[in-house]
Design brief:
- The protein is α+β, with helices and mostly antiparallel strands and about 170 residues long.
- It is built from six helices and ten strands, in the order ααββββαβαββββαβα.
- It has a six-stranded mixed beta sheet. A four-stranded antiparallel beta sheet has the order 1-2-3-4.
- The radius of gyration is 16 Å and the shape is elongated.
Length: about 170
Amino acid sequence: MSKRNLELLQVVRKIADYQFGKGAGDKLFPDDVNFIVSKKTGRIRQVMEGGKLIATVNPLSGLLNLTIEGARRLAAGNKIRSGWVKIRDEVASYVERGSNVFAKHVVDADDEIRPMEEVIVFNSHNEVIAVGKAILSGIEMHHFTRGVAVKVRRGRLEKTKKEKDTK
């Protein structure tokens, strides 16, 4: 591994540890990840392994936006510490196709979630079904019965633009 890639790996691991808890960086990013870096700024844009996109770095906040693959890695072993939301199975099929999570469908959520944080959405079987941005805090998700709780960025069954264009 080149010196530059080693430096980039250390950076994304530290961001993941800050954002998702200690040890998250090692869980998300093995030593053989590849980076797509902006030619203009030199900043990390995407982190990939074996052709699979794991995460992107938000250029405004500097934090990670997870993909479904990244969320699965983080949730492996059911030891996710923060940023999780469990929803009712009746609506899971809609959410995994990209629909937002409404507060009335939240069964449980991490109390430490703050609005605008990255969250992972689970069904009752602890399967990752979506990733997105929290609109409500974790405590509000427990108590509110109206409104959007999580704005879903990607559901696990949602087709990418590339897949839609091939039809």
